[in-house]
Design a protein that fits this description.
GO terms for molecular function: DNA-binding transcription factor activity; transcription cis-regulatory region binding. This protein has 337 residues and is of the alpha/beta class. It has 12 helices and 10 strands. The protein folds into 3 domains: 44 residues, Orthogonal Bundle (434 Repressor (Amino-terminal Domain)); 134 residues, 3-Layer(aba) Sandwich (Rossmann fold); 121 residues, Response regulator (Rossmann fold, 3-Layer(aba) Sandwich). Helix 1 crosses helix 2, helix 8 runs parallel beside helix 9 and helix 10 packs across helix 11.
Length: 337
């Protein structure tokens, strides 16, 4: 590939003239423009896109920020992989690159975000793993950089978010278990400050009341969002007297550890403890007995996130006065055997 200086040297004219010809400026003669374009095609001229973007104040890239130390963000989980793949297709159609922004455990998410913003890596950002009080949202609102949050937070008053319908899933999960005669229900939520844990817990407790059951805060278990968290959960459930007869999991990989713990104790998942998982994933399909789970259209979610960010970028000069949210539904209600 040839740069603009080599192209100008080849033609024997100034870099300025070549630049104006390539950018179709009106002060360049038609013959000169034709000569420059012909030479550019012959020599394989490629513009310095980063330089152009810098002058325009654009990078033609957007960032997908996630926490690399979050057990729910890797370890074989297909959630982000499916969402990112779909979002990337939307951005690619508009000649925009999707860049992964992994925040490691040795840095706070807001400090990492500030570094990325200061370096002008991207034109817009998709935030994930929103916390109850998320300083990233308040920071991005102040900077005016277009962003969309995958998840809600009590922070911020003027941002776009898309979140899973945890309330609907908790309501349907409790209704399903109550319909099968379960009266003592437990729920497992992340031990982190992830906002989804608070939303799911509150919806679960409300759903108990709606179904004529007594809310029991001591049956709300905070564990790691991983297989190990599920194993820890099994020990806590078995220590309760009387023991819960059913549990609703906010993270599907907990089920792997939970099944293991129950079986080690001589109990059978599904018979001795009914289990419903929030989301179906490839990993839990191999559990026996089968784990009742909700389904999610992850590809649709990724496309919706991408389009929402494109809208925010297009309207970045129009100040947002209020937050705008959307609940992404769970599909295919689970069935208990």
């Amino acid at each position: 590939m040839t740069g603009i200086k080599a192209l100008a040297d080849h033609l024997g004219i100034s870099i300025g003239t070549v630049s104006r010809a390539l950018n179709n400026k009106p002060d360049v003669k038609k013959a000169t423009r034709a000569r420059v374009l012909a030479a550019a095609a012959e020599l394989g001229y490629a513009p310095n896109q980063s330089g152009r973007n810098l002058r325009k104040g654009k990078t033609n890239a957007v960032g997908f920020m996630f926490e690399a130390g979050d057990p729910g963000a890797h370890g074989g989980d297909n959630f982000f992989l499916s969402v990112v793949a779909s979002a990337q297709s939307v951005f690619k159609a508009r000649n925009i690159d999707l860049v992964m922004l992994p925040c490691g455990p040795d840095e706070t998410p807001v400090d990492y975000l500030k570094r990325m913003v200061a370096r002008r890596f991207v034109d817009g950002i998709i935030l994930t793993a929103t916390t109850r009080d998320d300083p990233r949202i308040s920071y991005l609102e102040r900077t005016g950089i277009p962003f969309v949050a995958l998840g809600r937070s009590t922070s911020g008053t003027r941002y776009r978010w898309i979140d899973l319908d945890f309330e609907g899933a908790a309501r349907e999960g409790v209704r399903l278990l109550a319909r099968h005669g379960h009266r003592r229900l437990a729920v497992a939520i992340p031990e982190s400050d992830a906002n989804l844990g608070y939303v799911f817990r509150d919806a679960f407790l409300d759903a108990l009341v709606e179904n004529g059951l007594d809310p029991q805060p001591d049956l709300v278990f905070r564990v790691e969002s991983s297989e190990q968290g599920g194993l820890d959960l099994s020990e806590q459930l078995l220590a309760r007297d009387p023991r819960p007869t059913a549990v609703l999991l906010s993270y599907e990989l907990m089920a792997i550890g939970l099944y293991h713990g129950l079986q080690n104790a001589g109990l059978k998942p599904g018979d001795d403890l009914a289990i419903v998982s929030l989301r179906e994933s490839p990993q839990i399909r191999f559990l026996s007995p089968a784990l009742p789970s909700f389904r999610l259209d992850l590809h649709g979610l990724g496309a919706e996130l991408a389009q929402a960010l494109l809208d925010e970028m297009q309207n970045r000069d129009v100040p947002r006065k209020t937050s705008q949210g959307m609940l992404w539904p769970f599909e295919a209600l689970p069935k208990l055997t």
